[in-house]
Amino acid sequence: MKERISRNSIDVLYNDAGDKLVTTDDIKAEIKGFYVKLIGTAAPHLTGIDIELVREGKQLSPLAAENLIQPVTNKDIDEALKGIDVNKAPGIDGLNGLFFRKAWDIVKEEVYAAVKNFFQTGHMLRQVNNIVVTLVPKI
Question: Is residue 130 part of a domain?
Fold first, then answer.
């Protein structure tokens, strides 16, 4: 175990200037700085939406707007499931589209309830609303 821990640690790191970093704090700061630069920074100023310009553009008809707020039906959920590629990578729970299609008769009532609850309340179960983000630098 000790060998594995030493193998999975960074003892030395060189920054862009070629300086050798050996302390844990310096190495952590350099790695953090690298990813902050990689991801970017917040914009100093965000332009607001010109509501008058928006009103001049195309708008939904009253009927189309009404359709957007209709309750979600089991048929809507079934159609969404059919649109999921069975070969897509699984979610954090390890379940992909193929699982849901094969086990649909078993899980559909719970899925219907969860999806409808989300659209009615705007809240998603914490267990469902998880994601894993892995940053992989381009080398």
Answer: yes
Q: Which domain holds residue 31?
A: 2-39
- Give 102-105's long-range contacts (Cβ < 8 A, gap of 24+): none
Q: Which of 119, 123, 117, 83 is nearest to 100 (CA)?
A: 83
Confidence band for 133, pLDDT divided at 50, 70 and 90 = low
Q: Is the pLDDT of residue 38 over 70?
A: yes
44 belongs to a structural domain: no
Number of structural domains in the chain = 2
Mean pLDDT of 130-139: 62
Secondary structure (3-state) at 21: strand
Mind listing the pLDDT tens digit for each residue in 42-68?
Answer: 767 767 888 888 888 888 899 998 988
Residues 96/88, Cβ–Cβ less than 8 Å: yes
Q: What is the gyration radius of the CA atoms in the chain, in angstroms?
A: 24
The answer to the question of residue 63 being in a domain is no
- 3-state helix, strand and coil shares in percent for the chain, rounded to the nearest 5: 50, 5, 50
pTM of the model: 0.51
- Tokens 């008058």 label which residue? 52
